[in-house]
Design brief:
The structure holds two protein chains of two kinds. Chain A is mainly alpha-helical. Chain A has 14 helices and four strands. Chain A has a single domain, classed as ABC transporter involved in vitamin B12 uptake, BtuC. In chain A, α2 packs across α12, α2 packs across α13 and α3 runs antiparallel to α4. The radius of gyration of chain A is 20 Å and the shape is globular. The two termini of chain A are 12 Å apart. Chain B is α/β, with parallel strands linked by helices. Chain B has two domains: 230 residues, Rossmann fold (3-Layer(aba) Sandwich); 236 residues, P-loop containing nucleotide triphosphate hydrolases (Rossmann fold). In chain B, β19, α15 and β20 form a beta-alpha-beta unit. Chain B is globular. Classes of the chains: A mainly alpha, B alpha/beta. At the A-B interface, α9 and α10 of A face α10 and α11 of B.
């Protein structure tokens, strides 16, 4: 089944939903300012989902991303407060350190998977606990407020504010730009490079990939490293947004929502099939749904029920369509 | 089955096909892939409904709407792909889904006793209490047969039952078939192996393009006429002439002291342009020898290509040295089914297409895969087609394309024509001859004795992981190869 066809299905569901909700919400749903709000809200989930897509494509999974958001956020905040740097230099050093930490955690996640053939469900579950514990230890259980305001523009700033004001459009938040960059780079990485082809091949048939000379261990490890890096970028953006690195940032549903975005986006949990753009649309669908239910004043407990049902429905519809096409 | 018709959107799979099988008779059903054999059998087993036509059993018209109906009517199927649970033992597999019960619990002792009875009745020699995943493919096939027999079948369909079996296991299978005939079971026997028909079948029905072309008693249906009916045109000699190997042709592949899992001290040499066949029983270690040479499994000993010993015996290392390994099981080891023909074709040589940052040169990949599609006459609408949608023979050509893309100097072929139709087989033989002419050294494992004898310059017989005998093309005969393979004094 062609991933592009699956993507088209997701987009069609999105369109129908958007038009329906917009009518029900008397046009407020499609207002540019609301669209931008949704994009801003899905940024973190989308970036985490993009990283998760790589591990799921190898028929693995990364449960540790939520905890890694906390750990990298706290460590970056502590580092920022202890460095005698300002402005761009401070931001770059902190970000690179966070990315290194995320990549390192991803490497540790992958090590027992490729060396001992342990299931990634277990190794990343362990990392989830370890990283969360560490983030509490290094922060002494308290949020770490940033001393510098160098990060403010990244967390809450806008992109091309002047131009959009002239066009009577809402300004695009900086985090949305980060999301766009991550989606584009990772999409090219998956679709256009040798590494991406290797990921898809080993997810589809690991033995065939190995016999074709693909460095299966290295490619798999890279998938977890990328997932860790994406968690670090999300941690960085959260920290910039709240001006604080908090050990509690990633203790909610981050990891589950990211996996939901991947799956709704048409990536197979069995590995080998999926796209990054699909994950973006998966995150967008979930974000729009959240937003629509808020606009329609749906009870927040009921929202959870609806969200769960929609995830199930999206995947079930996809499976049914797949069978229909296969039976022809 | 009378006047069966079946259409899929855009394809007429079966048109007005009628077959019958008498009690205690074996009807062989032959035809190229896509001729409609599988569809016809799926209709009989209730996996798919027929559009038109009727089915009668013992003169009574029956309706088969589901596999359950078929089972109730005493129709048993033995599929090409095994339907066993590898972790379960033979007893549990035989009674899967209809386990004898005592009250709310499984009656293990009863199941075991009934399985033992069954096995004794048909002379099937299988270990009952080991997980079937640990048994050889041939024994698993016997378990599969026992499973079908446990249902008191009146009609038994066997889809290529010998594809995975060694000569000796085939003999045993045919004994079981004879026992079944004696008990009045009607057997529909699907096979690509022409030489088996005379041994096992009473009558032969040839299907082509969804219609039945001819049905005759096997004694009145010579093999070349069967082949002609299958392909619709006269078939030339079954195997092409092999080009002679010059006496001074350089030694391309030299293997010495190779030992590893199921491989014991194997050494042989292959000259440029030579085809060496590895014969032997299933499980003798032929596949393992190829795997060890290709670096798929770790092994001690030395492998040299053109006199240069290979240092890194990993898949990547042996590929770089010019060794290509076409694996036995194309679905499990050869192809990524969910990827396109293009992506599968270039998979083993991505470094050729990788530019800076690993960026793949898409136009170059396209050119290369189009070239291979043309060269191997791969029947696919385009290079973007997913290989999962292609027929077995076409898939096999995609595997070959993947390896030939690298212009290998040594080609290791493991059962290169298993489960593919006559036309595709002939094309693969032609290809082997062409490669040999170009100086490629070929090592081929084949369980089909005629293929082994017809397509090898030299035959090495493998038993218990080691080479026990070697025959030149002139010396080799079915009897001496089998004798060496089974350990009988030649």
């Amino acid at each position: 089944m062609n991933p592009r066809l699956r993507l088209i299905g997701t987009i069609l569901v999105l369109l129908a939903l958007v038009i329906g909700v917009n009518i029900a919400a008397h046009g407020s749903f499609l207002e540019p300012s609301n669209i931008v709000r949704v994009l801003r809200q899905i940024t973190y989930n989308c970036i985490l989902g993009v990283g998760e897509t790589f591990t799921i494509l190898t028929a693995g999974i990364d449960l540790s991303i939520g905890s890694l958001v906390s750990l990298t956020g706290v460590v970056m905040a502590l580092l920022a407060n202890s460095l005698h740097l300002t402005g761009f230099a401070l931001v770059s050093v902190v970000l690179l350190a966070g990315i290194a930490l995320g990549a390192g955690a991803g490497y540790v996640n992958a090590l027992p998977v490729v060396r001992l053939n342990l299931p990634p469900f277990i190794t990343t579950l362990a990392m989830m606990q370890v990283a969360l514990g560490l983030s509490y230890i290094v922060s002494h259980g308290r949020p770490v407020p940033l001393n510098s305001n160098a990060f403010n523009s990244i967390g809450i700033g806008s992109f091309l504010g002047g131009l959009s004001a002239k066009l009577h459009l809402p300004a695009l938040p900086i985090p949305v730009l980060w999301m766009a960059v991550v989606v584009i780079i990772c999409s090219l990485l998956l679709e256009k490079t040798r590494f991406g082809r290797s990921i898809l091949a080993l997810g589809g048939n690991e033995e065939a990939a190995r016999l074709a000379g693909i460095a299966v261990h290295r490619v798999k490890t890279m998938a977890y490293v990328i997932s860790g890096i994406c968690a670090a970028i999300a941690g960085f953006l959260y920290m910039a947004l709240f001006s604080t690195g908090s050990p509690q940032t990633g203790t909610g549903d981050e990891m589950l929502n990211a996996i939901a975005a991947v799956v709704v986006g048409g990536t197979s949990l069995a590995g080998g099939r999926g796209t990054i753009v699909g994950t973006f649309f998966g995150a967008l669908l979930i974000g729009l749904l959240d937003n629509a239910m808020n606009l329609l004043n749906i009870d927040s407990y009921l929202q959870k029920v609806v969200l769960g049902a929609v995830i199930l429905l999206a995947v079930a519809l996809d499976e049914i369509r797949k069978r229909y096409l296969a039976a022809r | 089955m009378r006047a069966i018709g079946k259409s899929f959107p855009g394809v007429r799979a079966l048109a007005d096909v009628s077959i019958f099988v008498r009690s205690g008779e074996v009807l062989a059903l032959v035809g190229e892939n896509g001729a409609g054999k599988s569809t016809l059998m799926k209709i009989l087993s209730g996996a798919q409904p027929a559009d038109t036509g009727e089915i009668f059993i013992d003169g009574e018209r029956v309706r088969i709407a589901s596999p359950r109906d078929a089972e109730r009517l005493g129709i048993g199927m033995i599929y090409q792909e095994f339907t066993l649970v590898p972790q379960f033992d033979a007893v549990a597999n035989i009674f899967l889904g209809k386990e004898p019960q005592r009250g709310p619990f499984l009656d293990d002792a009863g199941a075991r006793a009934r399985a033992a009875e069954l096995v004794a009745e048909f002379g099937i020699d299988i270990p009952l209490d080991r997980p079937v995943g640990e048994l050889s493919v041939g024994i698993q096939q016997l378990v599969e047969i026992a499973k079908a027999l446990a249902k008191n079948v009146r009609v038994l369909v066997m889809d290529e039952p010998t594809a995975a079996l060694s000569e000796r296991e085939i003999d045993r299978l045919f004994e079981i078939v004879a026992t079944l005939k004696g008990k009045g079971v009607g057997i529909v026997y699907i096979s690509h192996r022409m030489e088996e028909l005379a041994r096992v079948a009473d009558r032969v029905t040839v299907l082509r393009d969804g219609t039945s072309i001819d049905t005759r008693a096997v004694t009145a249906f010579p093999i070349d006429e069967i082949l002609q009916a299958m392909v619709g045109r006269p078939v030339d000699a079954r195997f092409p002439d092999l080009p002679a190997v010059a006496a001074d042709a350089p030694i391309r592949l030299a293997v010495a002291g190779l030992s590893g899992r199921d491989v014991r001290n194997v050494g042989f040499e292959v000259r440029a342009g030579e085809i060496v066949g590895l014969g032997g029983l299933v499980g003798a270690g032929r596949t393992e020898i190829l795997r060890a040479i290709a670096g798929a499994d770790p092994a001690a000993g030395s492998v040299a290509v053109d006199g240069k010993a290979l240092r890194a015996r990993t898949p990547a290392g042996t590929i770089a040295a010019g060794i290509a390994f076409v694996t036995e099981d194309r679905k499990a080891q050869g192809l990524v089914l969910g990827m396109s023909v293009l992506a599968n074709t270039t998979l083993a040589h991505l470094d050729r297409f990788a530019r800076a940052f690993g960026w793949l040169d898409a136009p170059a990949e396209e050119r290369a895969s189009e070239e291979m599609i043309e060269r191997l006459r791969i029947r696919t609408p385009d290079a973007a087609q997913l290989v999962a949608n292609l027929s077995g023979g076409t898939q096999q050509k995609v595997v070959l394309a993947k390896w030939l893309l690298g212009e290998p100097r040594v080609l290791l072929l493991d059962e290169p024509t298993r489960g593919i139709d006559v036309g595709a087989k002939a094309e693969i033989y032609e290809l082997m001859v062409g490669l040999a002419k170009q100086g490629v050294a070929i090592v081929m494992v084949s369980s089909e004795l005629p293929e082994l004898l017809g397509m090898s310059h030299r035959i090495c017989v493998v038993r218990q992981g080691g080479i026990v005998a070697e025959f030149s093309r002139a010396e080799a005969s079915p009897t001496n190869v089998i004798a060496a393979a089974s350990g009988a004094a030649a």
